[in-house]
Amino acid sequence: MSLRVISGTAKGRKLKSVPGDTTRPITDRVKEALFNILAGDVIDSVWWDVFGGTGAVGIEALSRGAAFVRFTDLNREPVDTIKVNLTATRFESRAEAKRADAFSLLASHPDRQFHYIYVAPPQYKEMWSQALMKLDSNMGWLAEDGWVIGQIDPKEYRQLKFENLEEFEQRRYGTTLLVFYERKEKGE
Q1: How do residues 105-141 score in pLDDT, each as one tens digit?
Q2: Domain ranges across the chain
Q3: pTM (2 decimals)?
Q4: How confident is the model at residue 27 (pLDDT cuts 50, 70, 90)?
Q5: In this predicted structure, what is the pLDDT of residue 49?
Q6: Are 4 and 17 within 8 A, CB to CB?
């Protein structure tokens, strides 16, 4: 599958894929749908692409006007790939790519807040629910009006019981399900 930036200042730029099959790149169809949902809210937003992979989602956000994106991944190859893709799209100055364990980071003291936290981990390992539960118990990462977006296979989906987050939308595109969460209203 050829990866590319769909829209914005880096439109049409090809992105390098991570060697092997450890990552699951987002399809153009799903990426286009995601950014159609977010529309103009991407401009000046701050993102965390928790399981960075190729960096395609965060780079698309940067291309469409996001102010900053943090990319994290446990493995060296995805982080190296993200750095190559950031250089190719000239977004290095508005991004940070680091090798780190997502679960440790999500449990650590927040060093900044994010408008969008994108969670698209390897499939069928319950990593998406673990990441969301860690985030739910450490809400300092999420801006007051921020969203958490999970990208999973529909077969993996189940309702999660949260203290602070609530699901407000789902969109299915073939074998990809996007699940949107926001802070619960106070007093619920």
Answers
A1: 999 999 999 999 999 988 778 899 999 999 999 999 9
A2: 3-21+29-183
A3: 0.94
A4: confident
A5: 97
A6: no
CB contact set of 53 (below 8 Å; sequence gap of 6+): 18, 23, 24, 25, 73, 78, 81, 82, 120
Structural contact between residues 135 and 106, judged by C-beta atoms closer than 8 angstroms? yes
121 SS3 class: coil
Topology adopted by domain 3-21+29-183:
Rossmann fold (3.40.50)
Q: What mean pLDDT is predicted for residues 57-72?
A: 97
Q: What is the pLDDT of residue 19?
A: 76
Q: How many CB atoms lie within 10 A of CB 99?
A: 16
**Which DSSP string corresponds to 48-105?**
EESS-TT-HHHHHHHHTT-SEEEEEESSHHHHHHHHHHHHHHT-GGGEEEEE--HHHH
Q: Read off the DSSP letter of residue 125.
A: S
What is the rounded distance in angstroms from the CA atom of residue 102 to the CA atom of residue 82? 16
pLDDT above 70: residue 80: yes
pLDDT at 1 (0 to 100): 53
Give 4's DSSP letter.
E
134, two tokens: 């860690």
Q: Please state, in angstroms and rounded to a whole number, the distance separating the CA atoms of residues 65 and 25.
A: 21
Report the residue count for the chain.
188
